[in-house]
Every structure is written in C-alpha cells, then in structure tokens.
Amino acid sequence: KFKSGGLAERLSRLQCRQRSAISFWRHKSISDTSTTTTVDRPGVLVLEVLRIHEECSMQLALCEQLHPPRDDHQSQKSVSEEKTHTLVLFNRETAAQLSPAPRDIIHIHPPWQSLSIEGFSCSVILNTHFSQKVFSSRNGLSAERRMPYHLGQMFRLLDACGTKQVAASEASCVVGGSGALARHCVSLLEAIEGLGQAGSVDQDVDVVVQRVYSVPLADSSPVSILKHRTRSSTAPPPEERSTTRLCVLVQDDYGTFSVVQLQPLPRSNELHRFCQMWQGRTCVLRGIKVVQRVTRERHSRLFSLLDSLWPPAMPLKDHGNSLSIPDESRSPGPAPSFCYLLSGQQSSVEPTEGSTRSPLYLPPIKQTLRDILQSETKTCRCSFVATVLYKRMQSADVGQGEVWLVLTDPSLQEEQLERPCRRTVALCVNTSCVLISSVLEALNSPAVYQMSFRDAIRENGVLLCGKQSVIEVCSVERGTETESTTGRDSPCRSLPEPRVKTLLQPYRLDSLGLETTPNSLCTLTGVVVGVDENTAYSWPVCNCCGSDNLKLSSESSQTFHCMSCKSALDKPDTKVQLEVFLTSSSLNDCTMKVKLQQMTILSLLNAGAVEGSELHGYDVESILGKEVGPIPVYVRVVTRKPALWIGLEEISLRGCR
Ligand SMILES: [Zn+2]
C-alpha cells in the first residue's frame, strides 16, 4: 500500500491511466479496420521490420521507414530520402501484443518519441505503446535473445557510444562456457558485475590499498552481538571488547575506488600494524561482498578523501582499451562520482608476494597548519603534525561524544611578518573518528603531546576529524612499532616520551578579538565590572584526595572527617568558584563573562591562604575595577546578536604566554 498523496501513489495512478489508455486504443484500432485512413493521419510512423532481437526483456527492432503514399499537397521527396533506418524499442507488453517479425509492416501512432544519439547513425524510437501490425509476413521466427551489455563497458564508453569495439575484458577474466569463472581480475567493476550468489564477488581482484583506517562499531550491530555470545565464557573486560572495525580504501588500475569493511579490531592500537602491512601496497581482494554503491551527493566526506587521491599518481588503464595499456596522453578526467562499499573478513586482503610500494599509491602529504589555514579550497582533506595544547570533552569519558582539541605547530608559533595567521587552531574530533588507546591515554594525561593527524577534513574553515581520519601519538619509539603485540598490552608500559622539543615554549596565543571563534584559546586582559553572584561559591575539600564529601567531626567543630579517604583533617583546603564580567580596552561594546580559576580569584581577593569562613563575607565592591590578566582562556560561546557576548573560561596551560 502506498502513502496517500505520495510520489509512488501518483506514479502508480499514472501507470494505471496509461495502461487503460493503451487497452482502449487497442480495442478501438482492432474494430477500426480501415488502415488507409490511419496512415494518413499526421505523426503515424510506417515501418518495415528488418531485424529484431531481444535485450533485457525489451525487443529492439531495426526498421526501415516507409513514407505514406503522397497526397497532392505534400511536397515531392527524392527516392533516396524515402529509406531511412530507425531502431524501435518495444517494451514487454507491446512486444507480446505485436509479436514483431522481419518483413512485418508496423504503424506507430503518436505520442512516440525519437532519440538521436551522437555518433550513432539511426534514430531510436521510444514510447511505442500505440503500435499496430498492418501486414504480417507470417514469419514464425522469434526474436533472437542477446546478452545484456557489460555495465563496466558502458561506464567508460558512454562518450564513445558503443561505436568503439568493446574490449572482451581482461583475457584472464572471461566467463567460461560452463559458468566457471577465471579466478583473477584487475578491474573492480568487472568483478562486481560478475556477481555470484548472494552478492558475493567470486573473483580475486588486484587493488592498491590507498588508506587503512578504523570506524566505530555500533553496539547494536549484529557482528558485535555475535562476538559477545561466542566469547561469553571468557568475556573480555569492557575496554578490550571490539569496538572498532578495520576498513581499507582500495583502488584498481582503472581508477575505481571501493571501501572494504573488514573484521572488528580487538584492540584499536592494532590499526598501526595493518597500516604498515597494507597501506600503499598492491593486495589481492578475495571473498568480498557488495554492500552498497554510494555516490558523491550523499557521501561528500568520503568523496573529499577520494578527491585528495585524484588525479592518480600514474596513468590509468582504460576499460575501452583492449590491450589494457595505460595511455600516457589520456587525461584522467574528473574524480569518480561513485564508489562501492564492500565487506570482507581478515583474509580478504592479502599483499601480493614481494610487493613494494605501488606506483599508484598516493601517500598523505604532511602540511603545516599555516598552509592549511591559508588554503583557498573550501572542503579538503589534510594531514599534519601538531601539538595538542588543550582538550575539551563533551562527556567526561574520552571517546564518548565530541572532543575539541586546540592545536598549534611551529608554523603558527614563529614570527609571522607577512600574512599573519592565528596562533592556535581548534579541531573537532567527532564520534565517527576512532581514538586508539594510545591517543586516549595521551589525551587523559596532563602532558602536552605532539600528534599526527591523517586525512583530517577542512570544511568551511573548520578542522574536523571524522570517518577515515586517523590520529596517532608521535613518539620517538616510532621505529620500534613492529614489536610483538604482547609486550604492548602490559598495563605498566609507560607512554613514549612526548616529542615537544621542536616547539619553543612558551606558546603564544592570540589575544581576544572580534574575530575570535568558539572552542579556541586566547589570552585575555580586562577590568572587572561585575560579579555573577549566583556563581560565587566556596567550599571545603579534603587536602588528601580532593573530595568534597567531608563531615564535621563530632568531638570538635574545627576538624573534618573525609568520607572518601577516611582521613581526619585539621584544616581542609578551600575551593572557590567565581564568574566575573570584564571590559577590555581592545573590545568595545562587548560583554565578556569569565569563569576564573582558583589562583586568580584568590589574587583578586588579596587572600594568599584563605580559609572557608573568611571567603563568605567577601566584598563585591573590593574586586570591582581590578585588573585581570593576561590569563589564558578557552572560548566557550560567542554570541553576536543582539550584541557581542563572549563566554570564557580561564584555563591552566603550562608554558603559555
Ligand atoms: Zn580525602
């Protein structure tokens, strides 16, 4: 049942109306026996069938057009003009009704349509519902059935329109008479066309692995459910469970791309091993299934990666070139507009023996952040190494929800005499980007790390890591990554030394300005003009564990007992919280609200070591007019309408000035 008023319902109604119009016309034309009057009507085609064959349940008739007997007022035509060949397409219903055969005379009544194809000698007649046989040759021959065309040939040969002799595909890829397939192929398209049972590709295909990455595995996916069941006896701890799936982006010698989804990865750090094993090499794909054909319109981010791999590093083979010799002079044309999603298992990708780096491989090109920020391209993929100065998480758990990173690199920190650029840049890591465990550890540590970002997306000036992006911690131990995996899992294995020597500390930040964007870092200097009384708090915390779960001891009202670490405290620490409104001489007509850190609050209150009781009676007047800064701040919100309003938070950033 179709949705009322929907496209499908309207289309179905239209088809119904067409069917009844055709049967009504047929009924009328049978009862109306005078054929001569029909011929006289304008727009009626009179055709003699020469040859006929069946293709994809349609019947295709090569006909000679006969001109109706001339009337007096019709212009004289030369004899040569009278014989024109046309190709007529009959759909299944019309063909069954008409059963056309060679030497039959057929009338086609309007509305028929004529299609002329460039480079094709005769025109094609379509929409031939109102067709009538007026002379039967009584030739009992039925239409010869032909095999459908190879789609792969059509993809590349559309411009040549079949005039070019189609290559009989790779010699090794020909379908045998018994239905047995040659097992080897170099074209993804031809392998996918020759699909076997249940969408599985029977042939092995030679491809170049352009990228190896992992994607998050949805919890509800059938694979993960299966995994848990079969492993139930020795259930791994939650963090050891497979949460990511290995993927490869491959390309064949003809330039066609495919994404192959492979097995779940038990430990996300294994990704690096697969990258080293496969990326850049010629591999054999086997035992794969077709999941989906995707197009540029719906998967723009995937295609931004394909665009970064285009034009190819070497001339491509051409499906129309029977010798399959790459044509040096031929331009590769625009990047493909489609890509196949395939699925396979661990054994589906295997490097060919002795394979080194393929000449078709295009490795990610490392750029500086300055080059990336000043690039003119709207959407592109970029790869770089940067220092992570600060992180901001949507949820307390890294790896759940978005993470914002503030990055910098030497190109942004050095003296910028011409074309000044920002000192830091924000990057959003969305949930479709897998953070491998070494990256998670680094993000959870307070140290400043250098990380490499591969195939990040630059979209409308914003940096983003999503699907197909890979983040890795840069370490000096990089050369020894091929060590056995058993040693890498021990919990006491410390993180590699961060390599931050290339950047001179302290880092420079931009000062807050009109063009400041959310999620960036700035330095702020200003004068306190107001205090948000609702956010002013002070409370005692345990000086051993930092917990605020304290209880007054029963014996003395001066001592506390920590409920978390069970220690008795003579003098608990005091935490303070305060948000103030500032004005800045550099930013007029702008309201800035800053959440301050403890040290700044204490210095504003002129209190070196404040005890809880003393803070309660602080005087708002005493901090008004006081100067704050320069302090490093994280920009939380920027509202430009109705007036500029910036929400900030002071952060502690080691080594920043
Ligand atoms: Zn405690």
From TrEMBL:
Residue intervals of the DUF4503 domain: 251-653
DUF4502 domain mapped to chain residues: 1-115
GO CC terms of this entry: nuclear chromosome; nucleoplasm
Record-given protein name: KIAA0146
Species, as recorded: Nothobranchius rachovii
Superkingdom in the source lineage: Eukaryota
Stored Pfam families: DUF4502, DUF4503
GO BP terms: double-strand break repair via homologous recombination; regulation of establishment of protein localization to chromosome
